[in-house]
Design goal:
This protein is an all-beta fold. The chain is elongated and about 45 Å long. It is built from no helices and seven strands. Strands 1-7-6-3-4 form a five-stranded mixed β-sheet, with no helix packed on it. It has a two-stranded antiparallel sheet with strand order 2-5. Helices cover 0% and strands 58% of the residues.
């Protein structure tokens, strides 16, 4: 999913590239601040059903990666869910 993109139905919320000088423990995903899933091995991605999100407005998708030493880093994109077609 690209930053500023649109989605409908069942989509990959994000495919995150994570790297560290130690081993990546996991990447946790959040939609508008609510937990959406967790990936513990590459590729770091989850599937989410955008049908539960309000259409036509922007939503924040966050990914928080953590390594085996307890360090964490966050990346965010904005996503707009497309209105249902005819």
């Amino acid at each position: 999913m690209e930053a500023g993109g649109q989605a409908t139905g069942l989509e990959a919320c994000d495919d995150v590239a994570a790297e560290d000088d130690t081993r990546i423990r996991s990447v946790e995903f959040f939609i508008d601040g609510s937990p959406a899933g967790k990936a513990e091995k590459a590729p770091y991605a989850i599937r989410c059903n955008t049908a539960g999100l309000k259409a036509g407005v922007w939503h924040r998708i966050s990914a928080v990666g953590s390594d085996t030493t307890g360090n964490a880093s966050e990346a965010r994109i904005m996503l707009r869910v497309a209105e249902a077609g005819p």
